[in-house]
Amino acid sequence: MAASSDPTRLSATQLSAAMAHGQLSSAAAVDAFLARIEAQDHKLGAFTEVYAEDARLAAAAADQARRAGHALGPLHGVPIALKDLIEIEGRIVTGGSAAWRTRRARQTATLVQRLLAAGMVILGKTHTVEFAMGGWGTNMHLGTPWNPWDAGTARVPGGSSSGSGVAVAAGLAPWAVGTDTGGSVRLPASFCGLTALKVTAGRISNHGVLPLSPSLDTPGPMAHSAADAAWLYRIMQGPDPLDRATLGLPQQVTSTPRQANIAGLRLASLPEDERAHVDAEVLVAYDRSLDELADLGATIQPLQLPFPCADIAALNGRIMNAEGYAQLAATVDDLSLPLDDHVRARLRAGRDIPAHVYLSTLQQRQQLRHAFEQAMHGCDAFLTPTTTTTAIPLAEVDEATTPAHFTRFANFLDLCALALPNGMDSQGLPTSLHIIARQFDEELLLRIGQVYQQATDWHLRRAP
């Protein structure tokens, strides 16, 4: 495939192919992304720090290695951005907090080591909601990234991986890594028109990723397509002796593009009472996706959920509050530190959760997971909209609410999930389809996503 005259319009897969065929150098690609960051990020606010000099050096080294026949693999020289919860030894890692502006990492996250081993070039760190504790994407002190789908009105980018979502959607990076505790890669994917994978806990190591809720935290890829997300997921996943949760997990066989089809899959659709929570235009896109998947050979059947999604979201929030406060109590209770008022309140709510209530919630988690598994008998995956609305204006955000009505479901039950663009509303804002599968069924999700995107073009659309 011929390389675009503008590398920032290419997906990661396209960049890799262009480099492999000698149509594009890593240096040219990195320069293009850095130039775009310099030109646009003053408004977009996606990055907390840009490693321009180091990125150029790494790109030059990648080009030399390719010329010498010593490429580390197909991703050698491809740039990437990282959420500012992910540690790189010696680099600032703020966790989205002004109180940690000068905090330097003492280690490098395992997932970063794997990206570097593949030869990838890190462009810099991206903004996050403070301590990753919020779904709208706002940050009181360090700034809220601008959703690039509306140049005139500041709209929510989705959180907590807000900067990663904006960076990819605006062409400042071909893909990025975020983290997901209640929807934090999928919410920005929904509002910014991207594809993002929430993995089962343990699939990708959390070593070197600042924790919020260890029971729920999962790193994940954010990209333009399911094909890109699959590539990045496969680079990052796998056992890590520094994270016990990654050890002894079942492995899956990767499907080749030629083998990918969804004929015969049974996909469960949203029950009528849950549809009532969803805006009309989002439902139109959702229903069209059901029809498209049926045309591709899947059987669509309604699911009778054993509980309301709102109840699950509340239980997930209880775990986040309790474990988040346990992690951050000293910082949150120091009223001299400049913390976001809403984030401080969310985390301090965890202080008032008794131990027996927290432990009871963990027991409920097991019981409700079993109930969901019974309801899903005979089905391969469950389909919902990712968010109930498209990106709302920042001025309309109620910080006492969350857009994670459907996304927290997968975290609480420790399932895997994929968000991917599936339409546009009347304002030209992206809508998103949410596919939830059983534990460790990431490859099934990615197969469904790739088949869907081979038949549709929503993932090819770019923010203006």
Concise overview:
The protein is of the alpha/beta class and 464 residues long. 37% of the residues lie in helices and 13% in strands.
Q: How is this structure best described in words?
A:
The protein has helices at residues 12-20, 26-44, 52-67, 110-117, 162-169, 186-192, 226-236, 272-275, 280-295, 309-332, 341-349, 355-375, 408-412, 442-455, and strands spanning 47-50, 79-83, 121-126, 175-180, 195-198, 218-223, 266-269, 299-302, 381-385, 416-424, 430-437. With 464 residues, it is an alpha/beta fold. Strand 10 and strand 11 (430-437) form a beta hairpin. The longest helix has 24 residues, at 309-332. The two termini are 24 Å apart.
* Biggest sheet character: 11 strands, mixed
Determine the strand fraction and express it as a percent band: 5-15%
Structural class by SSE content = alpha/beta
The helix tally amounts to 14
Strands of the largest sheet, in order across it? Answer: 1-3-2-4-6-5-10-11-9-7-8
What would CATH call the homologous superfamily? Amidase signature (AS) domain
Give me the count of strands. Answer: 11
| CATH class type | Alpha Beta
Name the overall outline: globular
Q: Roughly how many Å apart are the termini?
A: 24 Å
Query: What percentage of residues falls in helices of 4 or more residues?
Result: 25-40%
Number of structural domains? 1
For the record, the CATH architecture stands as Alpha-Beta Complex
User: What string gives the helices and strands in order?
Assistant: HHEHEHEHEHEEHEHHEHHHEHEEH
